[in-house]
Specification:
The structure holds two protein chains of two kinds. Chain A is of the alpha+beta class. Helix content of chain A is 54%, strand content 19%. By secondary structure, chain B is α/β, with parallel strands linked by helices. Classes of the chains: A alpha+beta, B alpha/beta.
Chain lengths: 423, 258
Amino acid sequence: MKLLQYTSYKFAVLLLFFIGTWGILFYFAMRNEIIDETDDMLKGYRDIFIKKALNDASLLNTTYETTFDRYSIRLLSREEASHYRESWHNEEMYFLEGNEHIPVRVFKSMFLASDDQYYELEVQMSTIERDDMAETLIFYLTGLFIALLICIFIGNRIILKRSFAPLKKLLSWLNSIVPGKSIPPLNNHTKIMEFSRLNEAALAMSQRNLQVYEQQKQFIENASHELQTPLAIALNKIELLSQNEEISEKQSSELYEIYNSLNQIVRLNKSLLLLSRIENGQFQENDEVNINALVDDTAQNFMEIYDCKGIKFTIANDEKCNVVMNKMLSKILISNILKNAFIHVPNNGYISASIERDKLVVKNSGEKPLDKMKIFERYYQTSEEKEDSTGLGLSITRSICRLYKFELSYDFYEGHIFTIKFK
Amino acid sequence: MPLHGHIFIFFQILSGFRYIFAPNLFLIMKILLIEDDKKLRETIIDFLLSEKYIVEYATDYYSALEKVSVYEYDCILLDIMLPGGSGLDILQELKQRHKKESILIISAKDSIEDKVLGLDLGADDYLAKPFHFAELNARIKSIIRRKQADGDTNIVFKNMRMDLDKRKVFIEDKELLLNRKEFDILYYFMTNPDRLIYKTTLAESVWGDNIDQVDSLDFIYSQVKNLRRKLRQSGAIPAIKAVYGFGYKLCACDDHSD
């Protein structure tokens, strides 16, 4: 939901409540005022009538009736007169000409006439129709509500658009930041304090991020470097020891295990170093590389190594594919993507590579699809993974692709399909 | 043990019976190791002495520069990052003085630029740390051979001769036909005779970085099996012996069964 929609919606709810309450109160206030006014007038009528009747007794036998006002007189017994109370009430009266019922206000009062008799005087007066009044009120209030809503919406839109321009700029600036790359300048001057503070915070955070990123990269590279000498010593000592003919077969085999574990660390270390080098952009020199030949050569090597797995390998050199990139990285890229296929293909499975003008597709048979989101992450391994794989192969592949803006994707259709689109 | 002690023992060994296993090292090779890390230096020296080289060492830039300007060596193992300066500067100095030493760079900085720069400056080879001694040995022998044999690229071991240029193997002047990988494997053994070579090391040396997994070493087994069969059938004295199921050794035993 956009901020504009959100605030407009909140304003609408608030207005509805406010105008609704106001309408109800207004309705009751108006009604009371009208009744009050009518009652005053009825009282006035009564006073005038009594004054006249005291002078002119003939009036006591008459009934007066016009369209809207009328009065009638009734003689009261002494008994009745002793507990008489004045009363007000509303009534509906059939109004012949208009063929409708109209509301009337009735006032009953008592007076002592000149003939020493008590009379009841009933005065009626037509009054306003409540339904009509309510309807009119609702109609005009709805109009007011809609008009206010439109005003708020338009005003809101203009104000928000103006005041949120710096935010919009900040957002697009944040999106343009690439981890590890230097931070672009942020020219986003604003008078709004909150946004200028947000600017400062975003800038400071990106600089901190960059710094941490650099430090981490440096750390990985340094750590890998520093590890190499002690690793070399350990490996070489084992090599020396292994030549000793006095040690037993058992000891010798233990040495072999240690040696292999160390080798594994060395490989892991080299891979990490390679990764950080790629990400640091340390492979600058570019050549034109023929992918067809490279895939051919590399696959041949793997066929020898994985000969015992009984893999059926096919290659479709549909088109010639030349890519400008670093020679060493091209080897690593092709080797990693093919190696991945050779390692993970089940025994007696198939691998196919097809090369088009700007595309390499490597497919190997397999049962279950892998997690597309995680497959290129460092150390992502499925549960049945070989325990001595470094888990960095595909991550290196991705880093190389990223460096050259190649598109690397994974798909599953009757097998695992890796596609590199060279651009 | 002090260095002269090692050298003393070396001469004793030299005169001993083991010498017959390394006829292609008839000349005594003098190697200068320039490496600042004490433990690594000592380990490498141990290895080089066991391989019957004469070894001297330098621990920093200035002592290295002094040594190379005063003495002559057959081969210099050069670390790049040294206290006091860069190994590449030493390399440059050597080339300016037209010194004939073979130079093998051993560096922890496994970067392609350093490798290219080092080779451009005239180094003969480049080996990244950590390395296998068998590999180091092969490289040292290879660069010394290139320099000193004046075009003779044959390695001889007992009744077997390998012609590295033509990539051919002869047993008593009769050619033994090997495929590409079999040749590489045999070459690796020939440069490291009588040493236990682990399967993993062999796989890595011959197949390079494509080997990533220890569990897929069956291919080594079948390749070596074929090679052993060919050697046996051709009547070669050198034989590849399996050691405990995880390594091999090239030796001159007449007993081909195991």
